Amino acid sequence: MTAFLSLFALPLLCFGMGTSSELEHAKSTKFCLSCHIMVPYGKSLRVDDPQHLAAAHFQNHRVPATEACYTCHTNYAMFGGIKAKLGGLRHIYVYYVGTPPAPENIKLYEPYNNRECLHCHAGARSFEEGVVHTADSDLIPALKANKTSCVSSGCHAVVHDVGSLKDAKFWKGGD
Amino acid sequence: MLSTDLLERKLQLSGIILILGLVVESLCLLGHGPIAFILFVGLGGILFAVGIFLYLYSLVSAKVEPSKQ
User: Fold this and answer.
1) What is the residue range of A110's domain?
2) Which of A96, A98, A133, B11 has the most CB atoms at less than 10 Å from its CB?
3) Are B55 and A31 within 8 A, CB to CB?
4) A30: which chain B residues are within 8 Å (Cβ-Cβ)?
5) pLDDT tens digits for A148-174?
6) Cα separation of B11 and B5, whole Å?
């Protein structure tokens, strides 16, 4: 019985608890920004300009500041968390084995899905009754159907904009 | 010192591998970067899997002495 507990049950329990802790830690903003290539993206969260979508969400706690990257970049479909983790493994592979692109050349694998925005914004008064959103009666259905992107030009197009950080003013608070 | 008995030796080996796995995983939990995560799941996970497999294998491969009736 002792052998079973120490050689089978305990290791499985330790591995399970450890994996859960590591996966939880992997959601943290600190974890994502621990790769040097992500540093400009971390800086872009502190740009002092409300037009910068990611910065406005981070600074106003529209997303949890400690899990800012994960909150927007995970996929809110059924296996979103798993897909995000697999994507993370791919990033690690490219970072250490492949040739990582320059930070300003990093692109999403697929266009940003409005589902991720609507996970929080759908039903919110500022979204449903916003002046710009209601100016055209076709806009909200198109946004909900992901036919018009929230981050399309003329809407919330400035997300991270790491290419223009050298001219930006930064918010010093929030530490 | 490993035992001369085959079953005990396998169990000891399994224990050693599992302790190594625990050490690796404990050290990885102190780390904060992606490499710690990879080592935790990769190296720690493999050591645990090998240790547990060896333990289970030692049980199923053990020779049972016929009962004296």
Assistant:
1) 22-163
2) B11
3) no
4) 32
5) 999 998 899 999 999 889 889 999 887
6) 10
